[in-house]
Amino acid sequence: MKSVIISIIMFLFLILIHEFGHFIVAKKSGIKVNEFAIGMGPKIFSKQKGETLYSINLFPIGGYCAMEGEDNESDDERSFDKAPAYKRFLTILAGPLTNLIFAGLLFSLVSFNTGKPSKIVGEFTENSPIKSQGFKVNDEILEINNKEIKEFSDISKSLEDFYKNHNKNDEISLTVKRNNKEVEKNVRVKFEGKRPILGFIPKNQKVGFFEAIVIGIKQVGSMISMMVLVLKSLFTGQLGFSALSGPVGVVKEMGRQANLGIMNLIFFLGYISVNLGFFNLLPIPALDGSKIFTSLFEMITKKRVNKKIEEKFTIGGFILLLGLILLVTIKDLINLF
């Protein structure tokens, strides 16, 4: 129960981070903010401060920064709709961008505390192919097929490059350093789906502050690349509806990660933050991406998108998103019990 409560609080915090991005840039841009809310549905707490109502709502499945004239017409000179296109663009972009920046900071924190994977074998996985072929703990991988391995990520890249043009049964040349001597063997790898693996867990090596920041930024980039592939797989039918997860599934997984340790939880929190940032950048009506697209269109062409048409697409997109969230939530609840 404790882990579930922590998970809900952290999920709400990610929403807070996202909406705060919109909020702070809107305020700096002179756009009037009517309400800043976390959660959806009935209000359980609210406080008026200046022109803005601050609220916490019952259901922790979203949040919003309600700006004057954002979704309807307004005569207020400080309304969102009357702001210059570049201010609207920056205000909407700030939400997902804040999530991505926050994720980078979380990944950097994890890297600084746990280090980064090295080229040295720490332990073997179950049925490890290289263990059964004579390799040992503390072996340092130097080369794969005569290609130098500079860091851990080079290993999977070298294997994938090799097997693009070779049969799964073809052996690779693996060179390691053991007791200050080089050992070279031809070995057969194992495949998990289409992914070739050697079957070991690397030792971690400590990293400095600035290197941890670089690792955090790279981690955000690699996760975005992965999400592009996932999105492509969903559209092509390679991944089904069962692969999607909603708020209930996210909170459940956060609870599981919390039980595995604080660093696991922080890393997963970063992963969810990247998800929020990435999907809100997609040009789908009712998501931030649609307003980013229309503002950018206006900045380039100097022409406004018809407000009434935009509103109809936004309403339609909102209904579709709510329907999808409902279906995914039902699926998550069924899996939960």
Automatic annotation (TrEMBL):
Topology with respect to the bilayer: Multi-pass membrane protein
InterPro entries on file: PDZ, PDZ_sf, Pept_M50_Zn, Peptidase_M50
Entry keyword set: Hydrolase, Membrane, Metalloprotease, Protease, Transmembrane, Transmembrane helix, Zinc
Residues that span the membrane, as ranges: 89-110, 220-241, 261-282, 313-330
GO cellular component term, pick one: membrane
Keyword S-adenosyl-L-methionine attached: no
Protein name: RIP metalloprotease RseP
Organism: Anaerococcus hydrogenalis ACS-025-V-Sch4
